[in-house]
Amino acid sequence: MKRKHQLGGNTIVTHLLFYLASGSFFLGTNDNLFVCFLVVFFSEVVLFISRQSDRISGFAWFCLVSAFFTREMAVVYLPLIACMTLFIFNSSKFRPKEAGLVIGSVAFWIVLNIPSIAHHGSLSFDNKEMAKQNGITWPQRQYLSQLYATQGIIPELSHVSWEETRSYLEKNGKDSLPSSTFDSLVFDISFTWKEFWKDFLYLIYSGFRQVGLVIFFPFLMFITPTKENQAIRLIGFGQLLQMLVFSAIIISYIEIRWLAPAFILGILGMDLLLKSREGKAQVDFINQIVLTALSIYGIFAYIHLIGNTRTWLETFF
C-alpha cells in the first residue's frame, strides 16, 4: 500500500496558520524540538491507523527516541505512546528493521550524552533542580507554590523562590513538602483531587483559546458516533488521556505548550472526523468561526500589549 498522505484540507491549513500567528506553543528552550519529534511520530501513527500508510517510517521511530532524549517530560506521554506502540505491534507491522532503527537511535543519543553521563551520571537535560544540592527539589518548590497560591499568599500561575522554599522546609521540617512528583500525588489526596479538577478545567479553558473546538474533540465523538473508524476513536482517547494525565500529575499550574503534541494529534483526529461519513459540516463551520474570532481577539491583544510595552528604541529618545 502506498503512502497517500491525505491529512490536509481546511482544518489542517486553518490551524497551521493560527499556530504561526499565535506562536504560543513555541515558547521555551527545547520545547519546540520536543514537540516536533512527538508530532512527527503521532502523525505517522495516524496515517497508519487510518490506513493511509502501511508502515511507520524509520524517521518516525528516530523522532520518537529523540523525544525521550530531548525532554524528561516525554515520560508523561508514555501512556499514549505505549497504546500506539501496542497497536502497531498487534498489527504485526513492526519489522526487525524498525527494531534496529530504534536500537541505533538510542545508541546514537547515548554516545552524544557520554560527556554528561561521565560528569553528572545522567543524560543532558535542562536542570531545573538547581538547588537540589542543598536538599531542595523542583517538586517541593512547585507544591509550596500551589499551597501559597491556594491560600492567596502569591498570585496564581506564579512560583515561590528557592529561598522561600528553603525557609519553609527549615521552619516546618524536611518532610513538610513532597520531594518527588509521585510523592506530590499522594502527599494530600484531598488537595490533589481539588487541584486535578481545577487544572482540568483550566486546561479546557486555556486550550480552547489555543485550538478552538479541538479541545472538545474527545467529547465530540459522543455526539458524532464513529463506530467504524477506530483511528478516530484511538486519537480521541489519546488526547483525553494526556489531558487527564497532565491534570493529575501537575500540582501547580499547567503550561499549555506541554500539551501541544496532544492537541495537534486532536487536530489530525478532527480532520479525519470531518472527512468521515459521520462528520458534521456544522462542526467544521463553527470551528472555522471560533478560530477566526480567537485570531482577531489575539491580534487586538497583541496590539494592546505592544502599545503598553517599552521597546529598546525608546531608550535612545
Task: Characterize the structure shown.
The chain crosses the membrane at residues 7-26, 61-89, 200-222, 286-307. This is Glycosyltransferase RgtA/B/C/D-like domain-containing protein. The chain is mainly α and 317 residues long. It has a domain at 30-124. It is built from 14 helices and no strands. Helix 1 (10-22) runs parallel beside helix 14 (281-307) and helix 4 (78-90) runs antiparallel to helix 12. The radius of gyration is 22 Å and the shape is globular. Mean pLDDT is 77; it is low at 4-8 and 23-29.
Report on the biggest sheet. none
Strand fraction: under 5%
- What is the straight-line distance between the termini? 65 Å
Mean pLDDT, rounded to whole units? 77
Which consecutive residue ranges, at least 5 long each, have pLDDT under 50? 4-8, 23-29
Q: Give the tally of β-strands.
A: 0
Transmembrane segments: 7-26, 61-89, 200-222, 286-307
Protein name: Glycosyltransferase RgtA/B/C/D-like domain-containing protein
Organism: Algoriphagus aestuariicola
Keywords: Membrane, Transmembrane, Transmembrane helix
List the helices and strands and how they pair.
Layout lengths: L9 H13 L8 H19 L8 H13 L7 H13 L5 H17 L1 H7 L17 H14 L10 H11 L8 H7 L1 H23 L5 H7 L6 H20 L10 H16 L5 H27 L10
Helix pairs in contact: 1-13, 1-14, 2-3, 2-13, 3-5, 4-12, 10-12, 11-12, 12-13
